[in-house]
Amino acid sequence: MPLLYYWTRENYVRNMDDRDWFHLNQGSPLLREAAEGERLWAFTRNSRGDFVLAAELVITAKGLNSPAWTERYGPFRVWGSMSSSAYFDAERSPSVEALLRALSPKAKAARLGQSFQGHAAVRRLSLDDERLLSAFALDLPLHPVVHPEGRRDVARFLMDEELSVELALPTPQTALPGWMGEAPPPPTLAWGRVYPRDAALPQRLQRLYDGRCQLCGWDPASVYHRQLCEAHHIQWLSRGGWDRLDNLILLCPNHHRAVHSLDATLDFADLTWRFGDRREPIQLNEHLPRAA
Predict the structure, then answer these.
(1) Would you say residue 89 has pLDDT above 80?
(2) Are 42 and 53 in contact (CB under 8 A)?
(3) Could you tell me where in the chain the CATH 3.40.1800 domains are found?
């Protein structure tokens, strides 16, 4: 069952600026009915006031949010594939209003977005509807920040946001005294977004679980006499997650890398991690609440 979602311009702009991509939180229970592999289409308004397609998320997982996240964004969440989903450039895309009104007979409000309010912000599409949307989106320009290389593959800085760094190197140097030949090449500027973190939170996790992995129970201190497990943000900071204890989990290096490499997701309904078709329940838990 493909879905159509109205993304208000305010939220669209904020999410694009915050790199809060490849997932959707909402209060509509329709998100629970969508099957993995199906698509969630989003439309928004651009700066000219046109309604345009904003995203095509290929759903890889769905679940319930944590209670704290539910209060702010709604209880339901779907995750989109980071390799095959697409975000379109709203400023360079043509209006899709005529097509959307044809697909949604009940969308009779003077402004299209007024017909997509509350739970009605998410609506079902037929397969024929989706074929028309797919044809419309075939040549739409991709968002240059989300897809900097013009492809649907997401940039590595989002996959590795836990390891992001920011470096500002000096301005180009001239040849040093005694240097024979050309001046050395200028240093390059490299940066990745850095998110503020409370250094005390990982230590609280280490104490709470005696340094053991919450997923597999591995206890590195008993073997190596070192704390080798790592704190991971369940809702990535680059996707709008909070730097709070209830958004952190302690993972061994293997599970931490697997979560990032597979874009694994945690369903708070049963506190089970989803690694594609594989499910792994949390073994140790003293601080994460289940969703109601």
Answers:
(1) yes
(2) yes
(3) 200-281
Domain 200-281: which CATH class? alpha beta
30-52 confidence digits (pLDDT tens) = 998 889 899 999 999 999 999 99
Tell me the residue type at 188. T
Residue partners of 184: CB distance under 8 A and separation at least 6? 173, 175
Residues of CATH 3.10.590.10 domain(s) within the chain? Answer: 3-154
Instruction: Look at the pTM and tell me if it is higher than 0.90.
Output: no
CATH classification code of 3-154: 3.10.590.10
- Strands 265-267 and 166-167, bridge-based pairing: unpaired
Selection from 111, 127, 138 nearest residue 56 by Cα: 138
